[in-house]
Structures are given as C-alpha cells and as structure tokens.
Design goal:
CATH topology: Rossmann fold
CATH superfamily: P-loop containing nucleotide triphosphate hydrolases
GO molecular function, one term: ATP hydrolysis activity
CATH class: Alpha Beta
Structural class: alpha/beta
Keywords: ATP-binding, Cytochrome c-type biogenesis, Membrane, Nucleotide-binding, Translocase, Transport
Organism: Kalanchoe fedtschenkoi (Lavender scallops)
Number of strands: 9
Helix content: 25-40%
CATH architecture: 3-Layer(aba) Sandwich
InterPro entries: AAA+_ATPase, ABC_transporter-like_ATP-bd, ABC_transptr_haem_export_CcmA, P-loop_NTPase
Number of helices: 7
Number of domains: 1
Strand content: 15-25%
Pfam families: ABC_tran
Length: about 230
C-alpha cells in the first residue's frame, strides 16, 4: 500500500520577518498557501501592508526567513524571473493611460501577455461595458479601480497581489471584487490582499499588522472613512 504524499504548498512563508524603516513589521511568520488559497494582510494605513506585499512579490527581501514558490526561494535570480510571470499586481498607483480608451488600457496589458479576447468580457463583468470607447481620463475613481480589476482579469495570471483593492469602490463594486476573487480561487488561483477594509473571502488566512507609523490622514485614508463623504 503506497502512501499519498502531501502536496507541496504553492507558496510557503518559512519563518519570515519583514522590516520597514528599520522597524520590524512581521517576525516568525509561517504560512502555507496551496492552490485556491487566500492570505489577507490586515492593518491600518502605515502599518506596513504594502511593504509585506512587495516582499511577497519578491521586490524586497525578507529580513529573515524565506518565501518559497514551488519549494524555491523567490529571491534567487533564476527563480524570480519565472515567479514574477505568475504574478498579477494591483497597486494604488493605477498605471492608467489617460489618453487611451478604457478598452485600450486593458488590451495593451493583454497583448503583453500574448493573449487576446479577454478585455471586453472583463470590462463588461466589471460594469464598464458602456464606457469601453471613452477616454480613461473621464473615469471616476471608482471606475478607475474597476478598470484596474478588469486588467487583472484579462491578464489571467495565477497569483493575485492586491493592494487595497476595495478603496474607492461602492458597495456594488466591492461585491464584484469579492465575486471575482472567489471565482479565481475556484479555478485554483491564489489571492493575497493587503487591506484596511473588510473584504469577504471564505477560509482566508488573516495576518493582522499593528499600527506603526502615526501620521496625518491622507486622502486615501478618507476614502475608507464612512463618516466622510
């Protein structure tokens, strides 16, 4: 009788520590993420969520421990080249080309992936179907975030790294975000989210970061405040 081997985690955080501005944000973090898994980095603005997300993307090195993809250290140069092709990054800097149409803003990234035909369905799913021929500069902040999410869908990479993906979205937009995350996970995709706002994700692992850097409230902070309109 042969014993079935436990599948190797797609991503493994092995005793990881992370620093920001000479202060430790995380230490001794051990997390296994298999296909279909989700990790949420929760914390207030300034707590270091984006720094941790950049570490998981391989842009910053852990101050201790290792981040392993398929058992390989992502900071090794040969591994990182392959690992970064698995990543779909959504950041607060939206990289939207103001003078291009909504459709071309997604198609441009889609073509970089040598893929075709996903842009329009992605835009329609995100509620931007009637705006595909409008210039991107005409979009509201919420519509710009929906455009970013449509780009994530069109690029169709297995690991999503989402930095504050619900900021600027209305209630309907948040529901759409939760839906596309759930569907991506059903197909075996992995989702890692940094957020200070609640996002419903079934069976997600949650790491809470304490506040670290008191500072003045920014416009992005205000967007997350229900008492400011």
């Amino acid at each position: 009788m042969s014993l079935r081997k436990t599948p190797l985690p797609r991503l493994l955080l092995n005793n990881v520590a992370c620093m920001r501005n000479a202060q430790q944000i995380l230490r001794n973090l051990n997390v296994s993420i298999h296909d279909g898994g989700a990790l949420v980095l929760m914390g207030t603005n300034g707590s270091g969520k984006s720094t941790c997300l950049r570490m998981l993307a391989g842009f910053n090195r852990p101050s201790a421990g290792k981040v392993l993809w398929n058992g390989h250290d992502i900071t090794d140069s040969g591994v990182f080249h392959q690992y970064k092709l698995q990543l779909n990054w959504l950041s607060l800097k939206d990289a939207i080309k103001e003078n291009l149409t909504v459709r071309h803003n997604v198609e441009w990234f889609e073509l970089l992936e040598s893929k075709e035909g996903r842009s329009v369905p992605a835009l329609e799913l995100m509620g931007l179907g009637k705006l595909i021929n409008d210039k991107a500069r005409m979009l509201s902040m919420g519509q710009r975030k929906r455009l970013q999410l449509a780009r994530v869908l069109a690029m169709d990479r297995p690991i999503w790294l989402l930095d504050e993906p619900s900021v600027a979205l209305d209630d309907e937009g948040v529901k759409l975000l939760e839906y596309i995350i759930a569907e991506h996970r059903k197909r075996g995709g992995i989702v890692i989210v940094a957020t200070h706002l609640p996002i419903e994700m079934e069976d997600a692992m949650i790491v809470r970061l304490p506040p670290r850097f008191p500072r003045r409230m920014t416009f992005i902070d205000m967007l997350g405040r229900p008492d400011i309109s």
